[in-house]
Amino acid sequence: MPIRFVLVATRHPGNIGATARALTTMGFGELWLVAPESFPHAEATALAAGADEILMRARVVPTLAEALADCGLVYATSARPRSAYYWPTHTPRSAAPKLLAAGRDGQAALVFGNERTGLSNEELALCGGVIRIPTDARFESLNLAQAVQVLAYELFTQGAEPPAVSARAVPLAPTAEVERLLGHLDQVLTEVDFTDRSGGPHLLERFRRVLARAELDTEEVAILRGFLAAVQARRRRAGSGA
User: Fold this and answer.
1) Cβ pair 92, 157 in contact under 8 A
2) Which of 15, 83, 179, 198 gets the highest tally of CB atoms within 10 A of its CB?
């Protein structure tokens, strides 16, 4: 299935190997590693228990932005309380149909953070939603590879059934295109002096969350970029007295 599993700043190579094994058992083969502390490593190979092919094909990149540049739908996994973030929140079961549909159209991704600290706010900002795995409130801690297994299992079982979400006529815009849209929006906000009254970058972050909830396709991004360009052109003409 064309769904990318991305591990960010993984500390223990054994977790990379166990993740490779989990993905192989569920029929997934695309593993990206963002700045792992130790890889390749003998412990990763040992814990893969025969899933060496995924380890051999794993892509290692320095930043999460690079890992997600061509992905349309991106969900992060997090154990933070719901009140700690403002992104749309899903369970593995509710997220699976959307990920499968996006995967059929192009590229979808699941992002897993560092074992100790999880994902930073900056890393979460590159994702369109958050998945929380329901657990007993008395013990909410899941091992990294266990979390991967839960998500991979849900995707595998739902992928074997008739699609619950129809494929889009136009594919979702890749993360890199949405980031360029946000950069363009930031330019226009500055030009028209529309700023957050409280100061700081909060306004743009709110726009980022709005766009994440919208799940824009490539045509919608082009329309919004065209609108912003028209605003800039009108301001230039007004400034020149034309």
Assistant:
1) no
2) 15
Q: Is 204 left (phi over 0), alpha (psi -120 to 50) or beta?
A: alpha
Tokens of 94: 């509710």
Q: How many CA atoms lie within 13 A of 134 on its CB side?
A: 7
Q: What is the pLDDT of residue 48?
A: 96
Report, as an integer, the average pLDDT of 129-148: 90
> What is the Cα–Cα distance from 35 to 54, expressed in whole angstroms?
17
Residue 228 placed within a domain: yes
| pLDDT per residue as tens digits for the range 12-71 | 999 999 999 999 999 999 999 999 999 999 999 999 999 999 999 999 999 999 999 999
> Could you tell me if 148 and 38 lie in one domain?
yes
- pLDDT at residue 146 in the model: 96
Q: In this structure, is the dihedral angle defined by the CA atoms of residues 204, 209, 213 and 218, taken in order, positive or negative?
A: positive
Q: Is 25 exposed, middle or buried (0-12, 13-18, 19+ CB in 10 A)?
A: middle
